[in-house]
Amino acid sequence: MSIFGNSIFGNKAADTSTSAEEAAAADSSPDSAATARRVAKTDEQWRQELTPEEYYVLRQAGTERPYTGEYWDTHTAGVYQCRACGIELFTSHEKFDSHCGWPSFWAPLAEGNVRYIHDRTLGMDRIEVRCAACDSHLGHVFEGEGYGTPTDQRYCINSISIRLVPAEEPQVKGMRPEA
Predict the structure, then answer these.
(1) Which of 115, 139, 151, 171 has its C-alpha lying 20 to 30 A from 106's C-alpha?
(2) Mean pLDDT of the chain
(3) Residues paired with 130 in a beta bridge
(4) Pairing relation of β-strands 78-82 and 162-166?
(5) Residue 82 is inside which H or E element, if any?
């Protein structure tokens, strides 16, 4: 079953935005991954901590140009964190080459770490993906595009919204470093 109900397009798409009351109820749930990590900062604090480009994408729901971001063609194993707050969002295991110019993932690390908003800006009908902990804009998710992924979904994420933490090299059993 899709996270979007029947479809993310057309009149059957459910409005997946979260009201303040729903967010508060979710935050009080012990199962909410973002509960302990809830980040609340003023606009001025965000402006001081983020570069102008990061602020534009993360806080103003901007988009970086395709094929310009740091991770659109990266194949390094690791975990992708929210650049604003550090919560883990995606892993390299779910990353795939969609050739769209932005990093693409077929699923988030944990559904509780992202939230969805029905986005009708610019004359389009899309589902926006945000960080559940700090409410930063990450990108959009699309489904039914025919990619050979387990979910048939493409989380199209701005590189500037995430930070890759590379996986540590596995230790080979029985090998000792030379002194």
Answers:
(1) 171
(2) 81
(3) 115, 137
(4) antiparallel
(5) strand 78-82
